[in-house]
């Protein structure tokens, strides 16, 4: 349509473009040239089969552990709070209803500066959190996901948790098993 009516391209609310595809031996080019020249942040790579194309079950997504995130429902528990009246930041996953998953790590300073004064507006919202194994609890706030009506399904969370503890050799082993099944 836009080729036939280029005057309409100006008023479109978004742009659709093609992503350049590279073969696996072009990974160095992707990492050193393509990703640094992107106009947006790159949070991972997607590997597809040359013959199967881009379809469910036929792709391998890779993200660095600090970019693997999950969407969970946030709720505050004031029954157990610290000396600053900072509540527990409870996270809930989706299992046909929201069920408790874990807590979110928030420092006392973050509670005082960001959360405390308007915490009621954050109750029940979906938050995107990332995993940080050096803290307890290991989940850190990344952003609000008001575009999501509910938390990630528990099966999605389980897959992401597995990827956080897997290593590159395990990914290679899984990929080889998939190829052998063809």
UniProtKB/TrEMBL annotation:
It catalyses: a 5'-end diphospho-ribonucleoside in mRNA + GTP + H(+) = a 5'-end (5'-triphosphoguanosine)-ribonucleoside in mRNA + diphosphate. Keywords: GTP-binding, mRNA capping, mRNA processing, Nucleotide-binding, Nucleotidyltransferase, Nucleus, Transferase. The keyword Glycoprotein does not apply. GO terms for cellular component: nucleus. The keyword Nucleus applies. Residues 11-63 form the mRNA capping enzyme adenylation domain. Its main location: nucleus. One of its GO terms (molecular function) is GTP binding. One of its GO terms (biological process) is 7-methylguanosine mRNA capping. Residues 67-168 form the mRNA capping enzyme C-terminal domain. Its EC number is 2.7.7.50. It holds the Pfam family mRNA_cap_enzyme. Gene3D superfamilies: DNA ligase/mRNA capping enzyme, Nucleic acid-binding proteins. It comes from the Eukaryota. It is found in: Nucleus. PANTHER family: MRNA-CAPPING ENZYME. This is mRNA guanylyltransferase.
């Amino acid at each position: 349509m836009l080729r036939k009516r280029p005057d309409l391209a100006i008023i479109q609310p978004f742009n659709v473009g093609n992503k350049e595809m590279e073969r696996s031996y072009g990974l160095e080019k992707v990492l050193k040239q393509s990703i640094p020249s992107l106009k947006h942040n790159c949070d991972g790579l997607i590997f597809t089969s040359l013959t199967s194309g881009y379809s469910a079950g036929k792709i391998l997504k890779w993200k660095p552990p600090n970019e693997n995130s999950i969407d969970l429902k946030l709720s505050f528990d004031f029954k157990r709070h610290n000396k600053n009246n900072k509540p527990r930041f409870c996270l809930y996953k989706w299992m046909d209803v929201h069920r408790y998953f874990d807590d979110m790590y928030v420092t006392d300073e973050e509670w005082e500066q960001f959360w405390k004064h308007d915490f009621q507006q954050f109750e029940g919202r979906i938050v995107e959190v990332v995993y940080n194994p050096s803290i307890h609890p290991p989940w850190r706030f990344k952003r609000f996901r008001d575009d999501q009506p509910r938390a990630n399904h528990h099966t999605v969370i389980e897959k992401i948790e597995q990827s956080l503890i897997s290593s590159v050799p395990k990914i290679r082993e899984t990929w080889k098993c998939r190829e052998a099944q063809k």
